[in-house]
Amino acid sequence: METYNSDSFATRESYTAQIHLPGKVFEQLVWWALQALPDEILVGMDIDANTPHRPEVEEKFMGSEHTSGLFQGQGFTIGEAHIVNRGDSYSVHHLPEDWTDDMFSTSRGSRAGRFTHWLHTHPNAPAIPSHADADAAQETPGVDMILGLRFSPEGPLPWFDDVDGVRRRVGVEAQPEPAKSRKRSFFFRQNLKVLGVAPSGHKIHEIQLIAFRKNGLGINVILVDDDGLPYGWNALPS
Ligand SMILES: [Zn+2]
To answer: Residue 194 is part of a domain; what is its CATH number?
Structure first.
């Protein structure tokens, strides 16, 4: 989380807004993602109205193109998370009927507008939005997030890497993408770094986390502790 935040700080000029996610919620999301394998999960999240971003943190991570009022809940830390669906990359975005069965469902889209922010997982695939993801995001009042996990044993989901886009990794310093050669990736796979071992026994090699608005703009994610301070706060350049 410290290296992720230091990367968020270094790339702050690429973002027009930021969102603060508590580390303990993040940890829970990773665990849920592994428990649901091989499915993707869809998680709804609301803001904690009592916990605005700490102004000194907001200031520190603010880029020169910062814009206020970009999305619902902007300026507030994410509160609790709730799993609302699981399925494949298409069906995960379509909630079961008991979630959408009200008179507003048709006007609120496939997710019925229950939450401010949404996150879904990409098991053994990069955290980059698909077309279905972009469609689902059109109804999101806050931001959409994707949690990409690379783990082994891979089971039925070998790592899928043939996607273009910007990745944000947790636990490793930013580095150039390895060349996209099958041979290279085969050998690369044998030497994967292990970030940690999940209670499920899966070795976690890579965690990616991104947030974006429905117009495609990236939102900078800051992982914060119980005091609302980023992990690695004291180590950031002044
Ligand atoms: Zn997706």
So the answer is: 3.40.140.10
